[in-house]
Amino acid sequence: MSAQPLTVRPATPPECRSCNSSVPVDEHFCPNCSRIQSLGRHGDYFAFLGLPRRLVIDAQDLDRRFRDLSRKFHPDFYYNATPAERLASLERSSYLNDAYRALKQPVSRIEHLLTIEGFPIGKSDEGAAKVPPGLLEEVFALNEELDEIRDLRESGADAATLAARLSTARKPIEAKRDEHERALNDASEQWDRQTSAPPDQRRATLETLRQLLLERNYITNLLGTIEREAAAHG
Fold first, then answer.
1. How far apart are CA 173 and CA 224, in angstroms?
2. Which of 3, 88, 104, 122 allows an S-S link to 126, with CB 3.0 to 4.6 Å?
């Protein structure tokens, strides 16, 4: 797979509308006149919040950065400002909320990193029709168990028996989910250690993260299937 990181910076720095000075795309305010800048082209939530592209982050630091920027961008401060500044405050406030939600949770943080590094996982249901190779055994066993449970239900088995069988069917899938959580944590820590690693090593880690997330999504779908079957029995 040949992937290229997402380019989030324009070819030339944007200019401040107030003083025409060049302003780096990651700056929220003009270094020359201190006016808030229009959002323009962005795409990197880490840079927007002043964070490096790391997957293990300090939650308290993230919260602090979010609160600080929320105050600085709040539209109430720009009530008497120019229309361009009022719009900029709204754009940056909205984008800040998106960035905070994405980086606050480990999985969405990984998804965003993959996107800006050129390894997007696509839609959340990607891979749903194709069983990931690492899950073939679990999927085969679960489908057999669910078929047997449905046969039992149609033959009039009592609710307690069906519930017990579903609980048994759920355990190996939950175990696989926990295994993937540990693998994601390990791969995330590996990425953070690779700041100065060769590009091929970093790409390999990104591909590992991508595959783990695709498998995690499939596991979530399997657990959803079990829950729907349980609801049908209820």
1. 11
2. 122
> Which helix (DSSP H) or strand (DSSP E) does residue 135 occupy?
none
Contact status, residue 170 vs residue 223, Cβ threshold 8 Å: yes
Assess contact for 46 and 61: CB atoms under 8 A.
no
Helix/strand/coil (H, E, C) string of 38-81?
A: CCCCCCCHHHHCCCCCCCCCCHHHHHHHHHHHHHHHCHHHHCCC
- The radius of gyration computed from the CA coordinates of the chain, to the nearest angstrom, equals 24
**pLDDT digits 0-9 by tens, 172-191:** 999 999 999 999 999 999 99
Q: Would you list the domain boundaries of the chain?
A: 1-120, 133-233
CATH superfamily membership of 1-120:
DnaJ domain (1.10.287.110)
Q: What is the pTM of this model?
A: 0.83
Of residues 95, 52, 51, the one with CA closest to residue 73: 95
